[in-house]
Design a protein that fits this description.
Blueprint: E1 3-7, H1 13-24, H2 28-37, E2 47-52, E3 55-69, E4 72-84, H3 93-107, E5 112-116, H4 119-122, E6 128-129, E7 135-136, E8 148-152, E9 165-168
Parallel strand pairs: 4-5, 7-9
Antiparallel strand pairs: 1-2, 2-3, 3-4, 3-9, 5-8, 6-8
Helix pairs in contact: 1-2
The structure holds coenzyme A (COA).
Length: about 170
């Protein structure tokens, strides 16, 4: 399999929509991605496609969010969504996307990336419970608390109080 991971371009948008609908089983996530692209949280440099054998087979976004805490409010980075075409899953495409997106956030000087997801999948990339680092992510009722995770990056400073608090989702997430 040939695999290229690169930033998405507008020409990829229909293929990204197709793979997200296939991966998640409905249009909700794909619709959300469309809204994110129109908002301040969109970060094109960490919105990546995986092209496998010439086909857009996977997609990941690291977008902006806010941390609200005693140190005030500051922007931070959040990984959502991650999706791979069902016919192309379990071939390392998801892992390649997560690693490339984390490298991009690290290079951009982000101190961490938060997400909601299954720890059984994300711990292999260095994600740990967000609460271990003083970050609160409000989850849906059905999600276990361990779903709230953070991956610390090079610029993380444990002594910086602005890096602790509650993650606030911009309204675009719906
Ligand atoms: C989760 C997802 C992105 C993984 O993509 P992928 O390209 O198949 O992932 P990789 O090939 O890098 O890794 C596959 C491994 O992850 C495991 N895995 C996949 N989803 C998992 C999950 N939810 N929990 C635990 N392990 C999971 C697989 O069992 C496989 O393990 P193995 O290598 O030991 O066999 C893909 O399954 C997908 O699109 N799922 C539907 C959408 C979704 O749930 N997205 C994540 C939430 S935003």
């Amino acid at each position: 399999m040939s695999l290229e991971v690169r930033a998405e371009a507008p020409a990829d948008f229909p293929a990204v929509r197709h793979l997200l609908v296939a991966a998640f089983g409905d249009t909700q996530v794909a619709d959300g991605v469309g809204r994110i692209r129109e908002s301040w949280v969109y970060r094109p440099a960490t919105s990546l496609v995986a092209v496998a054998d010439g086909v857009v087979a996977g997609f990941v976004m690291i977008t902006g969010c806010s941390v609200v805490g005693e140190g005030g409010e500051r922007t931070a980075a959040m990984l959502t969504p991650l999706g791979v075409l069902p016919s192309r899953q379990r071939a390392g495409i998801g892992a390649a996307l997560v690693r490339a997106a984390l490298a991009g956030a690290d290079a951009a000087g982000e101190p961490f990336v938060v997400l909601e997801g299954d720890p059984a999948y994300y711990r292999r990339f260095g994600f740990v419970p967000a609460r271990d680092h003083g970050l609160l992510i409000h989850l849906p009722d059905w999600a276990p608390p361990e779903a709230a995770q953070v991956r610390l990056l090079t610029a993380y400073d444990p002594g910086d109080p602005s890096l602790r608090g509650t993650i606030a989702y911009p309204p675009v997430y719906g």
